[in-house]
Specification:
about 500 residues, alpha+beta, seven-stranded mixed β-sheet, six-stranded mixed β-sheet, 16 helices, 16 strands, about 20% strand, globular
């Protein structure tokens, strides 16, 4: 029987805990840059007061032959997790990217709760907060919400130490994430148990309404078909972005682009914001290959894209509640407009598939099985992609943390198996921030790639301006004609 100080780890979260290997650490790494100076003691007090109100972050993940569980860290010491640091030399972006790269390549201490905050006080653009949290605690969408819960829309309010009881009550009213975090019994239910309960409910409903049986049988068949399709996908071939991994990661982030401009491009082309951003990053990879002397015309490449599977009313719950889908990235396409439409077509196909549900069920099944079976199964899937691509919508109003206004934020999700690159996109306060994490053996200079992201987006912006405000949706054939016309100019 689980003791009061131990709680079962969900099967899906066990899978993420076991995925860690020297070449791919299972950490979500983030950077928040502030506009104003922040007092370290005030910063630490806010974190201890708010972040540690989440009971889970005082617990460490324990794995043994008898199973995996959350266990209270009786020797918990905030100073091991909240660290004051400084950059060398000019303390500019290059130095900050180097420090983040080092931390992204360094495992967290498994004898302690798996998270850290580093406050970099002398960064030339303003104080920077580097966060590292293990993926077994939650997925990226949930952890972004946790970090945002440490902020306020008011400068003075962001400094106040709040009564945990009243703070939890207020936050629980805003989001189910807090109700789940503060309820030990609920947190002990794993994803498989939750789905089993749902299946019993649905079975009872089918007895009352037999005509529903065909719908559920169809769903099961669809999931099995998606699994078969995923297994039959060819492996991504070796390329500049796919190969043998080392133990060093490099990170970089681009200058932000205006969110309203991204929306305008999407509207003019009849595509979504996601289509435009993914196409721009794909174009950046295409351009990087050309700069390196490679021929991208025959390169095929997929990204695994996390898809949130929480119901809308539980959109902010903690834990790993997402599936993965395989997205084709048209890196061989040299036409920026045609590239957008190809991404849009691929995204449309995925929205009508059940790949995400299939992959969540697979992760849960792997979490129930022995660790010896998990690695080869995950490797089978990771061979089919070259990168992970995550796009998280952030708040569009300015926020404050420990008395300082947040200027920008960025994060990088971990990669698993033989995947050596991660693409991250997040919006905040009317801006879109994009970043890259790469294996040093494959792409030692990710800053060169993200510099191309802005150039590719500006190309799309200029092309849509040439089409005029009444352009509406244009066909790929028209896109080709416009591209040739622009080249001639």
């Amino acid at each position: 029987m689980t003791s009061a100080k131990r709680e079962a780890i969900s099967k899906v979260d066990i899978a993420w805990l076991r995925m860690e290997q020297p070449t791919n650490l299972m950490m979500i790494t983030g950077v928040i840059v502030l506009e104003d100076a922040v007092d370290f003691e005030a910063f630490r007090d806010v974190l201890v007061n708010r972040f540690l109100s989440f009971r889970r972050f005082r617990q460490k993940a324990v794995e043994s032959a008898r199973g995996c569980w959350w266990e209270q860290d009786e020797l918990f010491e905030p100073s091991a997790h909240i660290i004051r640091t400084a950059l060398p030399g000019d303390a500019g972006k290059a130095e900050l990217e180097e420090l983040v790269s080092q931390l992204a390549s360094t495992p967290l201490d498994k004898t302690k709760p798996l998270w850290q905050f580093h406050l970099v006080e002398n960064y030339s653009e303003g104080p920077a907060i580097i966060t590292r949290i293990h993926h077994c605690y939650a997925d990226g969408i949930a952890l972004v919400q946790v970090l945002l819960s440490l902020t306020d829309a008011d400068r003075d309010q962001s400094l106040k130490l709040i009564s945990p009881h009243h703070w939890k009550k207020r936050r629980a009213a805003e989001s189910n994430i807090f109700r789940r975090l503060m309820a030990p019994a609920r947190e002990g239910i794993d994803a498989v148990g939750h789905f089993s309960y749902k299946m019993l409910e649905e079975a009872a409903q089918m007895i009352r309404e037999p005509h529903l049986a065909a719908d559920y049988a169809g769903t099961a068949a669809d999931l099995m078909a998606e699994l078969a399709n995923a297994l039959l996908l060819t492996d991504d071939p070796p390329s500049r972005f796919k190969g043998e991994l080392g133990v060093r990661k490099n990170v970089a982030w681009a200058e932000p682009v205006d969110l309203e401009e991204v929306k305008a491009v999407g509207k003019a082309l009849g595509c979504t914001v996601n289509d435009v951003l993914i196409a721009a990053m794909t174009g950046a990879l295409h351009r990087y290959m050309l700069d390196c002397g490679d021929d991208p015309s025959n390169v095929t490449m997929r990204a695994t894209v996390p898809v949130n599977l929480r119901p809308l009313e539980h959109a902010r719950e903690l834990g790993n509640h997402f599936g993965l889908v395989f997205l084709e990235l048209p890196v061989a396409e040299d036409n920026p407009l045609a590239r957008v439409y190809r991404v849009a077509d691929f995204m449309h196909e995925l929205k009508n598939s059940r790949q995400a549900m299939m992959s969540l069920g697979l992760l849960a099944a792997l979490g129930m099985g022995p660790a010896s079976l998990q690695k080869p199964a995950l490797e089978l899937f990771s061979r089919k992609a070259s990168t992970v691509l995550t796009n998280v919508p952030g708040p569009q109003a300015p926020l404050y943390m420990a008395g300082a206004k947040i200027r920008e934020m960025m994060f990088w999700v971990p990669q698993s198996g033989s995947v050596g690159m991660g693409i991250s996109i997040i919006s905040y306060n009317g801006k879109v921030f994009s970043g890259l994490i790469t294996d040093n053996r494959l792409v030692p200079d990710p800053s060169s790639v993200v510099a191309n992201f802005r150039r590719e987006f500006e190309n799309l912006l200029h092309l849509t301006m040439l089409l005029g405000p009444e352009a509406g949706t244009i066909s790929p054939e028209d896109a080709e004609l416009v591209h040739e016309w622009v080249d001639e100019d």
